[in-house]
Write a structure and sequence with these properties.
Layout: E1 2-8, E2 13-19, H1 24-49, H2 61-78, H3 85-94, H4 96-103
Antiparallel strand pairs: 1-2
Organism: Mesorhizobium delmotii
Protein name: Transposase
């Protein structure tokens, strides 16, 4: 099976072709599943951390902050309460006790 894709860059487009050994239905399901997870992660990062507004574009800053945001998102998701992830992040900024509960014991 062959899958063709187009990636839009600043001033041009890049076309890629990938080949799979699978049925068309299984391949389409796998591709959709991958993008479902990918889009959900990016949407959450944008809503919770306003990631699209980040001005980090050059050097290692963008990658370093992406790692920090993913780490923070995983910590906030691990809290088991009824609040949304966005509210949990805000509460962690408002209350040092809530922040300590999210961070837990990191001295392992």
């Amino acid at each position: 099976m062959r899958v063709s894709s187009r990636t839009g860059l600043k001033d041009k487009s890049r076309f890629d072709t990938r080949y799979f050994i699978a049925s068309a239905e299984r391949a389409a399901h796998a591709v959709r599943g991958h993008w479902l997870v990918e889009n959900a992660l990016h949407w959450t990062l944008d809503v919770v951390f306003n990631d699209d507004q980040s001005r980090l574009r050059k050097g290692h800053g963008a990658l370093n902050m992406a790692i920090v945001r993913h780490f923070a998102l995983n910590l906030v998701r691990a809290v088991s309460d009824k609040h949304s992830i966005k509210l949990r992040r805000k509460k962690a900024g408002w209350s040092t006790d809530y922040l300590a509960a999210i961070l837990g014991d990191l001295r392992r």
